[in-house]
Amino acid sequence: MFGQEKPAGQREPGRSGGLPKMASVGDFTVLSSSIPATKVELSVSCRNLLDRDTFSKSDPICVLYTQAIGNKEWREFGRTEVIDNTLNPDFVRKFIMDYFFEERENLRFDFYDVDSKSPNLSKHDFLGQMFCTLGEIVGSQGSRLEKSIVGIPGKKCGTVIVTAEELGCCRDSVLMQFCANKLDKKDFFGKSDPFLVFHRSNEDGSFTICHKTEVVKNTLNPVWQAFKISVRALCNGDYDRTIKVEVYDWDRDGSHDFIGEFTTSYRELSRGQSQFNVYEVINPKKKGKKKKYVNSGTVTLLSFLIETEVSFLDYIKGGTQINFTVAIDFTASNGNPLQPTSLHYMNPYQLNAYGMALRAVGEIIQDYDSDKMFPALGFGARLPPDGRVSHEFALNGNPQNPYCHGIDGVMEAYYRSLKSVQLYGPTNFAPVINHVARYAASVKDGSQYFVLLIITDGVISDMAQTKESIVNASKLPMSIIIVGVGPAEFDAMEELDGDVVRISSRGRFAERDIVQFVPFRDYVDRSGNHVLSMARLAKDVLAEIPEQFLSYMRVRGIKPLPAPPPYTPPVHVLQTQI
């Protein structure tokens, strides 16, 4: 899972009772720990910039701005260096940004011709700007986006080339093993039952738990099993960031006794087994009280092995396309689209719940689909001219070619359908799932992955057939997102989302979890800020896609294709006059 990290509350190191209630230690599972985003490095080059200097060429600088979610305000993120006397700069200074697949990160690149030492941009000549999203850069072929610079009417401002490179440290995992010697005896009748808890430090000085070893019973000289952890989780890719390790004696009632602690860093650990990686376990409380206190034992690193994992971005960079299909519920329970109470109400001033869910998810996914052509389907309606009920009809009215151009094209076809079809029923999901599965079954080589978004208002009528379809689809390169709109009870949907119990049909279990269900009402911003509601929804429903995508590729043993060769700027030959 990708997710924002939550700083853990700090604890007084010397308390013998350990952490209050021990929730963050005793109940901790590796899966629930949030890992910071992967980091990407953006490189910027320009070609044919405007020349604003009379006697020489421009001296360009690039300034990057980002936009907060649900907020129109642009904030400066950083600046490149100034390159003197060129219209074709290849800036050396990079921008390093956190990348989340499930978030739309709007970017603005402004270019200036620098005329003085002043940091105030209004004192320099504006050369134009380029708007895009981080997903657009990453999703372009070879993660290289080339776009025209705009912003000065009537002038050709040149082009900008932005390339994204995932930082190597973000995809490394380490396999480590530790042992300890002569730990303090904490149990009255036996020896201690020790375990280790690892924390990475955050920017604000707090610590976040990132790993807990198993408990080794009744010994003061434990050897713990080797464990694997991503470098992102261990230190957020910062090799010198403090890693705090605490040693506890396990107690059945959860009041684990604090034995002591030590600090290290990824850089120190990477030296492997050596005298540098034997750590004294210190209990600050004991140290303060006893003059002759030396330590509460030692912990030794036995092995340290770095493994590089392939990431979601490796596949995207290698050309894997994400195909997005939308299926919309046209059953009568949505209410008459002409009435303001209807979930399909066509309000000229704002999007209805269907429109919001569609835009929220679609606008992010479209960055990963090069042709921006999306099949848009409807189900549960009576179609003209004969009124037959269909559970798999093209919103654009063309069953041979149900593709719409961009999310705007899908929205247009959706509104057109509302005027021509009659809302009816029942609510059947299996036909649209099977529709996408047919396409997914024809490309299993890793070059394409399919995401189906189903937006529905209600209780499903064909549960058995839908389960069967999902179990079959779990073998294919596809994921299903179901967004429930309106006030209905969606209990049955939870069964399709295999997070708790893996979905099964007639004794066969799904090969992997491919369904994510959320009720839209959980994301509606109380203050009526629709942009915020949509960003929250997208963040939650898309967060699982990269892991579902990787699980398919892993099971099938599909490796990412090599990225196309990097862009090499043309060499500018300097003419020297004799």
TrEMBL record:
GO terms for molecular function: calcium-dependent phospholipid binding; metal ion binding. GO terms for biological process: cellular response to calcium ion. SUPFAM superfamilies: C2 domain (Calcium/lipid-binding domain, CaLB) (SSF49562), vWA-like (SSF53300). InterPro entries: C2_dom (IPR000008), C2_domain_sf (IPR035892), C2B_Copine (IPR037768), Copine (IPR045052), Copine_C (IPR010734), VWF_A (IPR002035), vWFA_dom_sf (IPR036465). Keywords: Calcium, Metal-binding, Phosphoprotein, Repeat. Gene3D superfamilies: C2 domain. One of its GO terms (cellular component) is plasma membrane. Residues 323-524 form the VWFA domain. Pfam families: C2, Copine. Belongs to the copine family. This is Copine-8.
